[in-house]
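Q: Structure tokens for this one, please.
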Amino acid sequence: MRQNILSVASAVASLSFLPITLAGNPVYQPCPLLKAYYHMPTIDKNAEAVKSFTKSFTGLFDQLVKAGGSEDFSEIAPNTTSFSVVLFSGSVRCLGWQENLQPVADTLNLRNGTGLIRHYASYFGLAPDFNAGFAILAHDTEATRGPDLNVYADIVSLAIVKLQELAATEATARYVGTFEGPGGVAAFNTSRDGPGLLVSTLTAGENDLRAQIANAAGIKLEDLDFRLYPSNVGSNTQHQFVAVFQDKSAPVDMGTPTCITWQDVDSLGSSVDVRVVFTIDASGKATNVTLKGGFLSLGRSA
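A: Here is the predicted structure, written as tokens:
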């Protein structure tokens, strides 16, 4: 079995395969661990890595075929050369949400840390995708193990609620309104029963796109909650949002704004483009919106 595995590894590592795996752009899932491998300085697509690939790749299989009694049976030694080939591989077509710079936010991209020195305690949390974070430094001379940060976290949570209110006000000023053009009409608003931009009207020619989406998702039109959420993909003049469709009559939601259906982003496939791009002027206000993969462009009318 070991000989067969190494034969396969040798064939895979042949020079005819290397140009394929090293020619494409890096593709990786939105996970901090894989991103860390991609950003490691030691991962370099150079000639030396190519020369040593056969040896390093077969070395991985040496770890896999060890006897069950081996103390490091479950461990594979880190090998940056092999990981570089995997990460730079473009030979396998991946789903849209696995590709770089896709609009789906990285839900794992939350960084936090705690510290405790004598009577001082600290805690910080950062969400780089959303340019948000907080830091707490507390001092308590009476507590034997430093101050209890739970109370301070509650205070921070109150501040976050205020930030949410400010964000909703800013979103209203920037994005709420009606956008029209020869190709159709779109109207966006905010609501008290949930976050995001509520899509109240969306037509392309004579077609009601909201009705088409509801039909494709198996949702009654009156139960469709169609919202847009900002992604971390954008520039100084454009900002990409992601469309999320909720069935308000579903038992898991029952008309509430909890909406766990964001987990099914892009579940309708190519029939529905969930990417919506706003063009922003110098003041930060949306002046244009592009939908349907760029085929529908609408300018602000109100």
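A few notes: The chain is about 30% helix and 30% strand. Confidence is low (pLDDT under 50) at residues 1-51, 67-78, 91-109.
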